[in-house]
Amino acid sequence: MAGRGSGDLRDSDLVRLVRELRDRVKTLELQAASRVVPFIAESTSTGSASYTRMAWSSFPRSGSSLSADVVVALSGASSVDVQLRADGVEVGVVAVSVSGAVSVGGFLPSTWPFGDRRIVDVRVKANGGGSVDVAVVGAWHR
């Protein structure tokens, strides 16, 4: 099989090759084993109508996504918003209207370079008065 010289490529060929490479990298990232992320509880209950940090963690970025399983118990609050943040940027948010477990997640912000250690946290906001008890029971970075 003969190799290609740099002069043999047209712009459209180069664009196609870069897109194929990007797709292959994305596929490999998704296939990579996920890493467990331990969270430290900062609080277990809140009645605040604004986002309150309930748990946090810090780790070096080695993938593109983050997800967390959170258990909520509503005590008078009509609902709660569970927010996952990474490097000060919202990664995902889920509205919960019944007590139970919920998963929240999304892609990490591009402002967080691979290899750098940053803070991630779970925040909640109680809606409709009352309070909510919260526990992060698991989190994964992939």
Task: Encode the helix/strand succession as letters.
Answer: HEEEEEEEEEE
Q: Helix tally?
A: 1
* Number of separate structural domains: 1
CATH fold-level topology: Jelly Rolls
How many beta-strand elements? 10
Helix content: 10-25%
> What is the level 1 CATH name?
Mainly Beta
Biggest β-sheet, characterized?
5 strands, antiparallel
Average pLDDT, to the nearest integer? 90
* Overall 3D form: elongated
Distance between the first and last residues' Cα: 37 Å
Could you tell me the strand content as a percent range?
over 45%
Q: How large, in whole angstroms, is the Cα Rg?
A: 20 Å
Spans where pLDDT lies below 50 across 5 or more residues:
none
- The assigned structural class equals mainly beta
CATH architecture: Sandwich
Q: What does this 3D model show about the protein?
A:
The structure is a single chain. The chain has 142 residues and is mainly β. It has a single domain, classed as Jelly Rolls (Sandwich). It is built from one helix and ten strands, in the order H-E-E-E-E-E-E-E-E-E-E. Strands 1, 3, 5, 8 and 10 form a five-stranded antiparallel β-sheet that branches. The mean pLDDT is 90.
